[in-house]
Amino acid sequence: xxxxxxxxxxxxxxxxxxxxxxxxxxxxxxxxxxxxxxxxxxxxxxxxxxxxxxxxxxxxxxxxxxxxxxxxxxxxxxxxxxxxxxxxxxxxxxxxxxxxxxxxxxxxxxxxxxxxxxxxxxxxxxxxxxxxxxxxxxxxxxxxxxxxxxxxxxxxxxxxxxxxxxxxxxxxxxxxxxxxxxxxxxxxxxxxxxxxxxxxxxxxxxxxxxxxxxxxxxxxxxxxxxxxxxxxxxxxxxxxxxxxxxxxxxxxxxxxxxxxxxxxxxxxxxxxxxxxxxxxxxxxxxxxxxxxxxxxxxxxxxxxxxxxxxxxxxxxxxxxxxxxxxxxxxxxxxxxxxxxxxxxxxxxxxxx
Length: 352
What we know:
Number of domains: 2
Structural class: alpha+beta
Low-confidence stretches: 19-29
CATH topology of the largest domain: Lipocalin
Number of helices: 5
CATH class of the largest domain: Mainly Beta
C-alpha cells in the first residue's frame, strides 16, 4: 500500500511539473506591446558616429522599435513612425524655459535622410530597426545639441508599451540625440587636453603666462578639431558664442612624420577667418607642430600610460578683441605659444 501511494505521488508530481513547465515556457505572460527604445527622459543617445564615416557617406544611426512580452513575436507586427516635435518642444521648455540661446536644435534637413517610415517586427523576433543616414555633420556647431524626433503613429500590436516606473508614460515617442567624434575629440563626452610645459608670451609687453588648464577639443572634420587658442577663455555663457568664434583655432592632423611613425604633421588655421590670425612658427625642440601618440613608462610589473598630444609652436592675435565706443573692434596683441596639450587614453578601449 505504501509503495502504491509512493508511485501515485511521484506520478502526480510529474504531471504537476509538466504542467508547470508548459505554463512557464510556452505561454506569453504579458501582452505584446510596441514601443521605441530610449533611455531616461525618452532620449536615445547610442548614436555617436565617426566623422570619417559621415564624410564617406556610410554613417547612420538605428532607431529601434521593440515588442514587449515574455515570448518573441508569434507573427509579424507592423509599426509606422513620423516626425513629431511635441517632445522636442517639451525638452527645451523643461530645461531652459524661455532662454532660447540655450535651446537644443532639430537636426537640419540637409544633415540626414529619413528611413523607411514603416517597419515590421518579424515573427520570431522582438524588434525592428529604422536606419537613419547622417551627412554634413561637419557643417554644424559642435557646441549645440541636436535631435531628431520620431513617434509611433500606427501599429497592430495589442497596445503601446508604457513605463511602469513613471506612472504609465507611453513609450511611443523618442528624441534621437545626434553625436559625432573623430580620433581627437567628441561631442558625446569631454575630451579635455591638459596644458603641460606650456607658455604664452605677449609679444608687445613681453609678459609670459604658463597655463595649466584643460582645453576641450571639438571635432569639426574627420581629421580636425577646434580648441581655444593660447591662454584664451570665455567667462560667461552670454558671451560664449562670440568668444568661441573669435578665439578658436582649428588643428588639422595630416600625414605621419618622416622621423617618427607615432607622430603626425599638424596645420593650424582660424576657426573664423575674419576674427583671428594664426601663424605657425619654426619648431622648437619638442614643440614641433605634430600630433603624437605617446607611450610613457611601463615595465615588467606596471602598464604604460598612453597620451594623445598636440605639440605646437605658433602665434596668433584676436582681431575682434574688444568692442570700442564707435562700434569698431580693437585688435589684440600678437601672442607666441609653445603648447603641449595632453589627453590620456586607453588604446585598447578605443578599439572596442
